[in-house]
Write a structure and sequence with these properties.
Elements lengths: L6 H64 L1 H9 L2 E13 L2 E14 L9 H81 L1
Antiparallel strand pairs: 1-2
Helix pairs in contact: 1-2, 1-3
Length: about 200
């Protein structure tokens, strides 16, 4: 770092140091907020994963019962008479300056069975359970992406805090000390010169 040993430079460096110290406090606050939010968010992720496992287990249990009741070929025919079309809509929203996804999932029934009465109740329950499972997958996806993005932002913030705290602030403090020492020496030399001049006059 290059600087001139002058009072003007000293004032500028002190101003820059104040800005860096304020910036460090802001970054530390952001880091602490991110840590708290990530910990809270991971609890939501864990809860969502457990719920998804329950939904999937239920769906396969219903499907298994449908196979046992109706037989594989009959179930296959019933499934083919119904068409489901899903739509995923992903938007971005801001969370403490981080762009995170907001995912919505819609499922439309486009083709109906010819005879609804003939359809096995277990097929209907399995279909509903798989639809619910898909919604849970979307919910979990949103939560996990948000957690990942927050973790990435935390990593960047920690790097910035460390850079400001361990490199830039000490560098400016050292430069300020060097200039202050140099100015003090100049002042002492000047005073010594004045003293000598006075002695010569007297």
């Amino acid at each position: 770092m290059k600087f001139t040993k002058s009072k003007t430079e000293l004032l500028e460096l002190k101003k820059d140091l104040n800005v860096m110290e304020e910036g460090k406090e802001i970054l530390q606050h952001k880091r602490n907020v991110l840590i708290k939010e990530i910990l809270k968010h991971l609890d939501k992720v864990e809860k969502s994963r457990k719920e998804l496992n329950i939904y999937v287990q239920k769906a396969y249990m219903m499907l298994k019962k449908a196979y046992m009741e109706e037989g594989r070929e009959n179930i296959k025919k019933q499934v083919e008479t119904t068409t489901l079309k899903g739509e995923i809509d992903a938007k971005e929203k801001s969370f403490i300056g981080i762009s995170v996804p907001s995912i919505s999932y819609r499922l439309n029934l486009e083709k109906f069975p010819i005879d609804m009465v003939s359809e096995s109740i277990f097929v209907d329950l399995a279909r509903t359970a798989f639809i619910d499972s898909m919604k849970k997958v979307m919910e979990l996806t949103e939560l996990e992406i948000k957690a990942w993005k927050m973790a990435e932002e935390l990593k960047k913030t920690v790097i910035r805090v460390n850079a400001v705290e361990k490199y830039y602030i000490p560098m400016y403090q050292k430069a300020i000390k060097e200039i202050e020492t140099a100015l003090e020496e100049q002042e002492l030399e000047f005073l010594a010169t004045i003293k000598k001049l006075k002695e010569r006059k007297s």
